[in-house]
Design a protein that fits this description.
4 helices; alpha+beta
Length: 90
């Protein structure tokens, strides 16, 4: 007999994370990245959420169509990334 989760049809979800609350895990990863940064380590962070990336980045690059369309100091970017979103979406 198959487990119930396999027998039943899964409920559709619009979130890429499904029903799981990943905020604690994300906060843990961000804290670890911040500690590495404080130790002087160089980081390459690929993240869609600008607010998270700006916590640990000195520079921000946005690629669109394989080209760098934004190359700015992180402190020059607004915290919601409106300019980055506009540059990325065209």
């Amino acid at each position: 007999m198959a487990p119930a989760g396999i027998r039943s049809a899964p409920a559709p979800s619009l979130s890429s994370y499904g029903r799981y609350d990943v905020r604690p895990a994300i906060e843990g990863v961000m804290a670890a990245l911040q500690r590495l940064r404080e130790q002087g380590r160089s980081l390459l962070v690929v993240e869609q959420r600008v607010d998270l990336a700006l916590r640990v980045c000195d520079r921000v690059y946005v690629l669109a169509g394989g080209e760098i369309v934004v190359d700015e100091a992180a402190d020059a970017i607004d915290s919601e990334g409106r300019a980055l979103i506009a540059a990325h979406l065209g």
